[in-house]
Design brief:
- The chain has 186 residues and is mostly helical.
- The protein has 2 domains: 3-123, no CATH class; 134-186, no CATH class.
- 73% of the residues lie in helices and 0% in strands.
- It contains 7 helices and no strands.
- The longest helix has 42 residues, at 92-133.
- The protein is elongated, with a radius of gyration of 25 Å.
- 16% of the residues are buried.
- Residues 179-186 have low confidence and may be disordered.
Length: 186
């Protein structure tokens, strides 16, 4: 890789990094703002999931921009023969197309990785909070079903709310609610 190739790569990384930082700063979607204004609750954990994704986007955007700046600094100090440069044969439109294509591809791959990592981190965080605080799942059935779905507890058609919560408590290794009351009474 030559100087021009590294400069090109740093520009692409800078664009992708800026995109991720902008995505992290994004406010709520208009539909979610309206649902909150009207008091319609569709998902209890939506705000937390959104915060995790925004945090990942911010870290990836900052990381891409730092790497881009380092590549740019490195390319300025690189002194290689010109026949090693890969992109010299391209005209301005070709370079623009390659830059756009590379940026979109890199952004898609990093966004996919961020969503996978964010989903795993979010599941682990919900699992820890529910188990550490021993949340009373019976008092908020909608939240219990949402947590169960997130953690992969299947809901069979013949399940009642009580039987589903028992399955969720088994998955979380939590005592049943009547056992909890007995432990508190001691």
């Amino acid at each position: 890789m030559g100087r021009n190739d590294l400069e090109f790569l740093s520009l692409a990384l800078g664009i992708v990094g800026t995109f991720f930082i902008c995505a992290a700063v994004q406010v709520k979607r208009p539909k979610h703002i309206l649902e909150d204004a009207f008091g319609v609750v569709t998902e209890h954990l939506r705000e937390v999931r959104s915060a995790v994704l925004k945090r990942n986007n911010l870290f990836m955007g900052f990381g891409c921009n730092v790497i881009a700046l380092l590549l740019l600094i490195f390319s300025r100090n690189l002194d290689m023969p010109e026949h090693y440069v890969l992109l010299d044969g391209c005209d301005a439109f070709g370079l623009g197309g390659i830059l756009l294509g590379f940026g979109v591809l890199l952004g898609m791959v990093l966004h996919w990785a961020s969503r996978i990592y964010g989903r795993r981190y979010f599941r682990r965080m919900v699992f820890e909070v529910v188990t550490e605080n021993r949340l009373p799942l019976e008092t908020n059935v909608a939240l219990a079903i949402e947590v169960g779905t997130l953690l992969g507890v299947t809901r069979d058609p013949d399940d009642t709310v009580e039987s589903y919560i028992v399955k969720l408590r088994q998955r979380l290794n939590l005592p049943r609610s009547d056992e909890r009351m007995r432990l508190r009474a001691r």
